[in-house]
Backbone:
């Protein structure tokens, strides 16, 4: 009898050891699953606590839930790790809760379109008045001797902006007949054009010549001072790219610069 008791004693210890191992494994599985449940529950709690209108924090919380869902989906396909096993792994239930939370996400509205680009207005034409100089004798359309000195600076400015259209317009006061004034203003504009064409080697196609007579006064014709101001020739550089091409000149790359330069001569 004592011998049989001693023979059975090792088997009892084996059973006890197995039970202890099972209990330990179950305990560890419980701890790991509780940790997993607690982490996902914390992510869900943070998700529902953040208003949907706080776009940046909500996006961060969404990213955390998406990572949780990817992990649970991978374990569903490949099997959960052994430390979560022994029938205690709540993966499907956790995945369903996470996916339901993700489905409630409302993305932020698209940003408003940028305001339309406001292009800066072209600078107002710059007019230079040379009241003390005269280009023509009264009633004449031939340039006076020495009057070309004031045209030199204008020619330099024109040559500095190759490719722009050069508009030469003549004006008179209201003295005399309108038809004669219009013809005289045109002839004077042509005289200035011809001088610039011949002196500056500027193609005639670069010019537009106009004669307005007394139709565009800049001062009152009832005074001698006003009439003197109205008798003039205007030269305007119009920013029209490639309107003409000067010899050995490269076309302008843009219309940037000082704006439209106008030189006006009194006579």
Residues:
């Amino acid at each position: 009898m004592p011998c049989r008791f001693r023979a059975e004693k090792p088997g009892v210890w084996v059973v006890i050891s197995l039970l202890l191992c099972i209990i330990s494994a179950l305990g560890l599985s419980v701890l790991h699953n509780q940790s997993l449940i607690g982490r996902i529950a914390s992510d869900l709690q943070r998700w529902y606590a953040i208003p949907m209108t706080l776009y940046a924090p909500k996006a961060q919380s969404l990213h955390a839930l998406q990572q949780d869902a990817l992990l649970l989906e991978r374990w569903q396909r490949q099997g959960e790790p052994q430390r979560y096993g022994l029938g205690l792994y709540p993966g499907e239930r956790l995945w369903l809760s996470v996916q339901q939370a993700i489905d409630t996400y409302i993305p932020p509205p698209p940003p408003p379109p940028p305001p339309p680009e406001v292009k800066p207005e072209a600078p107002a034409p710059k007019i230079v008045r040379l009241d003390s100089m005269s280009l023509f004798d009264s009633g004449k359309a031939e340039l006076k001797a020495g009057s070309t000195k004031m045209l030199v600076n204008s020619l330099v400015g024109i040559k500095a902006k190759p490719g722009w259209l050069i508009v030469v317009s003549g004006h008179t006061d209201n003295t005399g007949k309108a038809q004669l004034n219009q013809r005289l203003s045109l002839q004077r504009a042509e005289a200035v054009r011809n001088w610039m064409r011949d002196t500056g080697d500027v193609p005639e196609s670069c010019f537009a010549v106009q004669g307005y007579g007394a139709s565009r006064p800049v001062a009152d014709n009832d005074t001698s001072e006003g009439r003197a101001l109205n008798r003039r020739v205007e030269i305007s550089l119009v920013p029209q790219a490639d309107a003409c091409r000067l010899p050995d000149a490269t076309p302008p790359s843009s219309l940037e610069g000082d704006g439209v330069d106008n030189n006006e001569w009194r006579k």
Residues 4 and 10 are 11 Å apart (CA to CA). The longest strand covers residues 165-171. The radius of gyration is 47 Å.
